Amino acid sequence: MALTKNERRLRIKSRIRKVVSGTEARPRLAVYRSNKEIYAQVVDDVTGKTLAAASSRDKAIASEKGTKSEIAALVGKAVAEKAIKAGINTISFDRGGYQYHGRVKSLAEGAREGGLKF
Q: Which residues of the chain have pLDDT under 50?
């Protein structure tokens, strides 16, 4: 029997997570994309703590108008700004099983514009 779309994404996600993990020196930028919103958080997997987070539901970003990809770029810039304020410059990018395309790519490029290196 064929896998559902979500089951397939979770399998891909587990393959990615075998390789990508966040440390204190190089935390992981995790992305979650729903049909309507997009979320990003910088995670230290050793301690299990979220160091910085941003989403399209934040008040400053939710008031902006634009396409979902433009909003995702704003979320990337916002999470980069919060991460740099927390003293984080380099990260590992975890696309969460989604293709590096569209909103996920826009978020990554926004984070790079915000000053994160990966």
A: none
